[in-house]
Amino acid sequence: MQRIAVWFSGLACLVCAAQSAPPTRVVSLAPNLTAMVTELGSAESLVAVTPFCAAPENVRRVPGGMLPEAEAVLALEADLVLATSITPASTLRQLRDLGIRTEVFETGSLEQIRQAMEKLAGIFEVAPPPPTPGGVPVAKSKRAALLFGAETGYSAGCGTHAHEIIESAGLHNIAAEVSGPWPQISEEFLLAADPEIIIVADYGDAKKAELLEFLRAHPLRKHLAAVRNGRVIVFPAQAFSIPGPAALEAGYKVRAEGQKLCSTNAVRICTRAKSVPAM
User: Where are the alpha helices (DSSP H) in 147-278?
Assistant: First the structure.
């Protein structure tokens, strides 16, 4: 009897260990969560993601994308599903009723993104990301405009992680003066606000010289102080559009670029700008 008791005790320990072991079949229902898992070095655990996620081709895409049916997820035999508040409540309820571990993350702010990264690090039993480096911010008086593409007026206002990135860089986001979290600012507003720095969130591999040339040829935007003085920062759009790991370091990087533009390097840039013929 004593041997049997010992055997059952050992079996119970094995079961507990299996339940607490890092997941090996993970389904991610959001691009930012997929990016976090990848950043933490646990991408090999992903068995399925949404069609909008950046993941290897051999990783399956979930039917229904970010709004899947529970049956489609169940068929993937996942031991963990990563979801956000966008995931339908009915899907989350069905997955949990079926006994599938489902973790829901809120990532609307930079602090929530940090918390999500730390929680995922605990789940996968890996080291959490290091703290974001600090630095001396650019003077708060510098007005900045974030544009998703040099030719558009799409921006980010209060209530978004993109706005927090700009503020953490020590800049004043002019789109905060417009209603709505993701406004489309008009040319009239842009001219009136006259930003001293323009941040172009680029979805490709555009070069600063190319975008600056485009802006200087624009009939209205060529009059902006940022364009006249060559104070344009080109930054990957992913950091501003996806609340994932890239967003955590974006403020520091934008701050560093802003410091360069507002330092002695700006003199060289402005001198070069004067040599460009007026359009």
Answer: 161-168, 187-193, 208-217, 225-228, 238-241, 245-261, 264-274
What is the rounded distance in angstroms from the CA atom of residue 228 to the CA atom of residue 270?
A: 8
**Whose structure tokens read 């008791």?**
5
- pTM of this prediction exceeds 0.85: no
Higher pLDDT, 113 or 5: 113
Q: Which of 86, 60, 85, 84 is nearest to 72 (CA)?
A: 60
Between CA 89 and CA 229 the distance in angstroms is 50
Give me the pLDDT at residue 131, please: 81
Question: Whole-angstrom Cα distance, residue 268 to residue 202?
Answer: 24
pLDDT in tens, 144-201: 999 999 999 999 999 999 999 999 999 999 999 999 999 999 999 999 999 999 999 9
Q: Name the token pair of 159.
A: 């209530």
Q: Write out 66-123 in H/E/C secondary structure.
A: CCCCHHHHHCCCCCEEEEECCCCHHHHHHHHHCCCCEEEECCCCHHHHHHHHHHHHHH
Q: How much of the chain, in percent, has pLDDT values that exceed 90?
A: 71
Q: Please state, in angstroms and rounded to a whole number, the distance separating the CA atoms of residues 92 and 67.
A: 10
Q: How far apart are CA 136 and CA 58, in angstroms?
A: 44
